[in-house]
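=== RUN LOG ===
request id: a7f3
mode: sequence -> structure
chains: 1
length: 233
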Amino acid sequence: MADYILNIESSTGVCSVSISSGNNIVSFRESKTDRSHASMLTVFIEEVMEESGIGTKGLAAVAVSSGPGSYTGLRIGTSAAKGICYAADLPLIAVNTLALMTQMVLESPDIQPGEDSLLCPMIDARRMEVYTALFDASGKQTTDISAEIITGNTFRHLLDERKILFCGDGAEKCMETIDHKNAVFVPGIYPSAVMMAAFASSALKEGRIENTAYFTPFYLKDFLTTIPKRKMF
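=== RESULT ===
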């Protein structure tokens, strides 16, 4: 019997949902309309469930992208995933958002990183700050996830020694700032539920399951709100 997994990705401006079996995608929905998570996520979940012909009783688990990324997006995705897990008594799986982006680069047919190359997925965190981590050419994470303010000297000591492939919406705003011959910017890379199948399947087989009650996504920074000027006094 196939182990069907519902995958939810909502960490950036892109909202996507998929049903996977092993490494294969059975059904998939995606919206690149910014801030569409609240209105589209439950719709996408219903559509992939109907299209695949799998009810919640046919699922083996629910996987959710765990961040870092948008506070609101991660909260919406996690809430939906937890709700389904509680209602259907399913295990919850967390998938590293930056690892998803790295895997998309590694599976791109036009990109061939050298053995010594590093991959640097970046998620926009406003102004010149990004959420990022470094991965080697096999997709293994080599540094902790952090919030970095990008300057002309960021990663320069590494770029002097090897090629680094930058990707994601955070990398797009850094192209002029990170000016080095070994800096390669890969366009069109973003976290997507279509890339979650292999990660979720491996986690399920290995028993890497989250505590549904206590799981929180990796926000990295606290949510900050601003008060409209007309309400300050």
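=== NOTES ===
The chain has a mean pLDDT of 92.
The chain has two domains: 4-96+191-231, 109-186.
=== END ===
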